[in-house]
Amino acid sequence: MRAVQYWSNSDVRVVELPQPQPGPGEIVVKMELCGVCGSDVMEWYLRPRAPLTPGHEPVGVVVALGEGVRTVAPGQRVFVHHHVPCLVCPRCRRGNWSNCPRFKATRLDPGGMAEYVRVPAANVELDVLPLPDDLSSAVATLIEPVACAIRAVQRAGVRPGDRVAIIGAGVNGIFLTQLSRLAGASRVVVSDPIAARRERLPGYGADAVIDPGSGPAPEQLREVNDGRLADIVFVTPSGLGPVQAGLELLEPGGYLMLFAPCAPGETLPIEPHRLWFQEYTIGASYSAGPHETRLALEWLRSGRVRGPEVITHRFPLARAQEAFTLTANPGPGLKAVIELGG
Fold first, then answer.
1. The overall pTM is greater than 0.90
2. Bond from prior residue into 51 cis (ω within 30 degrees of 0)
């Protein structure tokens, strides 16, 4: 079978790999589509593990069952989550799915960007979701990123009346805008330096969009936010600069939510004096669990979260390099999807 093999953002190959077979409790899925995530182009994260087959936004059709599988059947179209928690350990009982020891130990073989994928028994049991006929496979590739955004909004505690600022108007910024609205935010302002992306956001519920390159962002935020900064700030780009920018947008008592990681070794300079007297909270949200994926599926299906328009590019498997290049170089495009079927 063919699969994507990642070496670096500029070295993405299509290679031949053995087709996996299911063991007890496992399934094999013939992949149709897989979205490319911003985390798929974080070279500091991926290159030390290269070569590898990435892909954690996959949709496909079940083609083989291992012994004992009763939850799905051959021919069913499914979303497959790449990691699953145990749900019973102390970390899971507090909702910290991504820090459960089983979470990172469960993974797709070889990864979602392959023509065929073996899904471990734990994933089959907890987070392989049959897809309804009225939800397209393309939109279903958004289940995982929407689930991540749902978890972030819940962890940040967005409440009715809150004023939210979002750094980054890419796919994650679009979903966080919509979900903040659903959680009751009274005002949502998004900051992004790319004009084509800023222009989209009012259609997704943003009250205002600011350009951080046109002047101090805190001043711009106050101008469109009744003189106030934000109660909650979501930082969607990876890197220390956006985190520092996010801190400058917080009202006293505000919550800074990190929705993307910084590279190892990067250090955030901040005075505990400031944290104490301003009562800031800094939190993070990494990935999602089976509760969020089910909610994401339902909200995408019902249209409560708008998804189809964010998929701006589709590439056949043979052109996977182009999908990675587009994702690594943000511009007017948003989400790239790789077509694995055919």
1. yes
2. yes
